[in-house]
Amino acid sequence: MRLALLRVEAVRSALSLELGREIEFFDRVASTQDRARELAAAGAAGAIVVADEQTAGRGTKGRSWLAPKGTSLLASWLFRPAPAEPALFVVLSGVAVARALEHFGAPHASVKWPNDVEIDAKKVAGALAHATTDAEGGSLVLGIGVNVHQRQSDFPDALRVTATSLALVAPPVDRLSLLAALTRELDRVALPSERAAALDEWRRRATLLGREVEVVRDGRPPLHGVARDIADDGALLVGPERVVAGAVRPLR
Length: 252
Ligand code: BTN
Fold this sequence. Notes:
It is built from five helices and twelve strands. The longest helix has 18 residues, at 2-19. α3 packs across α4 and α3 crosses α5 (195-205). A hairpin with a 6-residue loop joins β8 and β9 (223-230). The strands form two sheets. It has a seven-stranded mixed beta sheet with strand order 1-2-3-7-6-5-4, sandwiched between helices. The chain has a five-stranded antiparallel beta sheet with strand order 11-10-9-8-12, with no helix packed on it. The chain has helices at residues 2-19, 32-41, 86-103, 175-190, 195-205, and strands spanning 22-26, 47-51, 72-79, 109-112, 116-119, 122-132, 139-147, 212-216, 223-230, 236-238, 241-243, 247-250. The protein is of the alpha+beta class. Helix content is 29%, strand content 27%. The protein is globular and about 55 Å long. Residues 31-33, 54, 57-60, 63, 65, 74-76, 126-128, 143-145 line the site of biotin.
């Protein structure tokens, strides 16, 4: 038992060294995002918070993010200083996720603005972000949930037709290896020199570009138009408008 524990600790510290930042692991935590935001508020530099289970996982738009214990990669990355153009980086994190999944044999992964990653038109991963600004470049906490081991029956009824997991589409994947690969891909899209290539790749992976969409935004009437492109700052260009936040769905 002690030896097993030692091995786990050895793997953790090797991973932490390899990825070049502190990693906090929790068997169970309310939300890795909340914990990483606490670290950010306390002035920590780069860190990664990972959990096997979250009791109050957060999704976008105030929704919950639910994942049975042991099924998912649940992690939040603290970047300090924040990557340049943080809003664009958050959109491009979808490319990082797609690349990481494909390293492990997943079929082609698509991105859906702003932060969803889909396989076979079903959501396999989502992200949310929280940025702060200050004179030293601020911080960014990026939380990502990847469905890894779920079987179809692990998803709530309402999600069964819209969600998928790696287990349903790819060979078995070890979550620590996925964490390492995803961290490397996030670091890659954070590099200003990689941005143009990642943005082009985002366009190639995007399912909604060129299609008629509806955008639902808080406190505003729905917007209908063709999703024309993504701007250099990560905004979605729909008809004549720039959309910086909202839910987008194809109309046909
Ligand atoms: C979405 O709604 O698509 C975004 C989901 C983000 C979930 C991840 S899981 C790890 C991190 N901790 C949280 O509480 N949420 C994010």
